[in-house]
Structures are given as structure tokens and as C-alpha cells.
Design goal:
It is built from ten helices and five strands; from the N terminus they run αααββαααββααααβ. Helix 2 packs antiparallel against helix 4 and helix 4 packs across helix 5. The longest helix is centred in the N-terminal third of the chain and has 23 residues. The chain is elongated. This is DUF547 domain-containing protein. Keywords: Membrane, Transmembrane, Transmembrane helix. It comes from Acorus calamus. InterPro entries: DUF547.
């Protein structure tokens, strides 16, 4: 806890203006994950540890003199507005996008932001030098671990991916096609999905897909 407080103190005077896009991307992903982990450590003895909303709101820090929480980092800095008609911004959002915004979105942050829940992606440390490859690896590993085929012969899609579907596809049908295109050709999941997508008895996407509920139970998954 002492080391975290020292780090937080140094962040107060940090100037991010000279960082490159990749440096900012890695910085904000790592800060988000560290901030969430810190709050979970504080709440670990209470029943609130499974409440994701409380965690992202209470995960507060001061970066360069601007106080923000994990929710703001995710939606005002790392993501663009999900609504293309999002013309109105409140003062806080406008400030964060102007000072810390990345300029253009990186959809693969979906597979990097870890809330310490069962449905969250694995926890990793990201580096500016290799951030693109690291995010690509995180995406593939998340898809392979979270997408599956149910006993009722339906393609199971995680709720997290369904929430941010518009970052990757226009609708559920094109999302399934996108998932299929991202999977390694030699993987067993891709071979199984081939039967569903390109078989003679292809079903409509609404009958072929089952969205898995988001599990907020505490868990940190650490990649090997």
C-alpha cells in the first residue's frame, strides 16, 4: 500500500504532453488496472468486492492535477463516445478528452481493462514498445477463453463483448463473423464455428447466439 501511495503522489505532478500515442495507451491501461486492484485490496474484507460499479467509481487518482476515477479513464480517455451523435459533453469529459484523450480509439482496450471479476480479461502489464502486439495477444486469448459452444449448439458470446459490440461490428451477426475472423486458423474453436457459419443448415444469428451473463465475482486471471 505504501508503494502505491508513493506512486499516486508522483502522478500528481506528471506531465503527459510529451508522450507518444503508444506510451499514453500503455500508461492509461496500466494505471486503470493498478487503480482497480488498489480499491479491490481495500474492499477485499467487505461484501462490496463483487460490486463492479462501486469499484470503478471509488478507484480515484490525481494525474497531473486532474482528479479522475477508473470509469472516466475508460470512457473519457481510452474509449470514444459509443453514440455517434454524442455532441454534448459535460465539462469534466471535455477537459479529460482535451488534456488526456488519445485522439483515436483503440478497440482492443476491451481485452486489456481488468476489473478483477470472473468475466474480466486477464491482468497484464503493457509496454509502449510492444503495445499493439500485446493487445492483439490479449484479444485472441480472451476470445479463445470466453467464446464457446453450448450444449444446445449455440455460440456463446461473453456479455463484455456484447456491450462493446459496436467497436467491432454493426450487429450480432457481423460480430460472430468478426470473432470467427480473429481466431487462429488451427484452433479447435474456429473449426467448430465453421460448421455453424458455413454449414448447409446455417441459422439466423438470433437463434445461433447466446449471450453469457457478466459474472462480477472476484477473480484475477494471470496469463502464463
Amino acid at each position: 500500500m505504501f508503494c502505491f501511495r508513493v506512486l499516486m503522489h508522483k502522478l500528481c505532478n506528471l506531465d503527459l504532453s510529451l508522450l507518444t500515442y503508444k506510451q499514453k495507451l500503455a500508461f492509461w491501461i496500466n494505471i486503470y488496472n493498478a487503480c482497480i486492484m488498489h480499491v479491490i485490496c481495500l474492499l477485499i474484507t467487505t461484501c462490496d468486492i463483487d460490486n463492479g460499479c462501486i469499484i470503478v467509481i471509488q478507484a480515484v487518482l490525481d494525474v497531473g492535477g486532474i482528479v479522475l476515477n477508473a470509469l472516466a479513464i475508460e470512457h473519457f480517455i481510452l474509449r470514444h463516445p459509443s453514440d455517434p451523435q454524442h455532441d454534448f459533453m459535460d465539462e469534466k469529459e471535455a477537459l479529460l478528452r482535451r488534456v488526456y484523450g488519445l485522439g483515436y480509439p483503440e478497440p482492443n482496450v476491451t481485452f486489456a481493462l481488468c476489473r478483477g471479476s470472473w468475466s474480466s480479461p486477464a491482468l497484464r502489464v503493457y509496454t509502449a514498445e510492444n503495445i499493439v502486439n500485446e493487445l492483439e495477444r490479449a484479444k485472441i486469448e480472451y476470445l479463445e477463453a470466453s467464446v464457446g459452444i453450448t450444449s444446445k449448439k449455440k455460440i456463446m458470446v461473453p456479455r463484455l463483448l456484447h456491450w462493446y459490440m459496436k467497436d467491432f461490428a454493426d450487429d450480432i451477426e457481423s460480430l460472430i463473423e468478426w470473432i470467427y475472423s480473429q481466431l487462429p486458423r488451427t484452433g479447435s474453436l474456429k473449426k467448430t464455428m465453421t460448421h455453424f457459419l458455413h454449414g448447409e443448415t446455417k441459422l439466423p444469428a438470433t437463434k445461433m447466439v447466446e449471450v453469457q451473463p457478466y459474472e462480477s465475482e472476484f477473480r484475477y486471471l494471470l496469463p502464463l
